Amino acid sequence: MTDIPPLAEGYEISTDPHRVDRERVHRWLSTDAYWAIGRPREKQDQAIDGSLNFGVYEAVSGEQVAYARVVTDRATFAWLCDVYVDPSVRGKGIGTALVGAVREHLRPSGIKRMLLATHDAHGVYEKLGFAPLEKPDQWMALYFQ
Q1: Order of strands, edge to edge, in the sheet holding 64-72?
Q2: 46 phi/psi in degrees, rounded to 5
Q3: From the CA atom positions of the chain, what is the Rg in Å?
Q4: pLDDT tens digit string along 16-29?
Q5: Buried b (16+ CB within 10 A) or exposed e, 62-81
Q6: Which of 40, 80, 92, 110 is deepest in the core (most CB within 10 A)?
Q7: Distance CA 84, CA 82 (A)
Q8: CA distance linking residue 75 with residue 106, whole number of Å
Q9: Is residue 1 over pLDDT 60?
Q10: Confidence of residue 69 (pLDDT cuts 50, 70, 90)
């Protein structure tokens, strides 16, 4: 699958880390994203600094309306995380276009597998080629308390 879903007119995607509205991203994630509720700002800034960041911005105002980050070595592994679309622009296909742009940005690197975890957005990701793990019994996790 190589089709990039179209981004709604009037929006643009950027990987420029200097454009990320860190305060807004922290507010979104720490107050409204089930996987990051209560995440401290310092931890969010550290995550941004160590990741490949994608933002969706209103073309005219420059206001950030969506965010995603990828933890990757840009060679063998990628983990898509912290995908968030502001509630005011949901339903416009912005999240789907954002994840499609992430996928296509990483495709030339030769990464064989990009992982993600989701509780409630399987349908969004399936449209972009994501599928359940073929052999989940081969995967393990180490949880730090």
Answers
A1: 11-14, 52-58, 64-72, 78-85, 114-115
A2: -65, -40
A3: 15
A4: 999 999 999 999 99
A5: eebbbbbbbebeeeeebebb
A6: 80
A7: 6
A8: 9
A9: no
A10: very high
Q: 0.90 exceeded by the pTM? A: yes
CA gap 69, 136 in Å, rounded: 24
Contact residues for 131 (Cβ-Cβ < 8 A; gap 6+): none
Is the pLDDT at 112 greater than 70? The verdict is yes
Amino acid at 134: E
> Is residue 64 within 8 Å of residue 74, measured between CB atoms?
no
Q: Report the amino acid identity of residue 12.
A: E
What one-letter code names the amino acid at 22? R
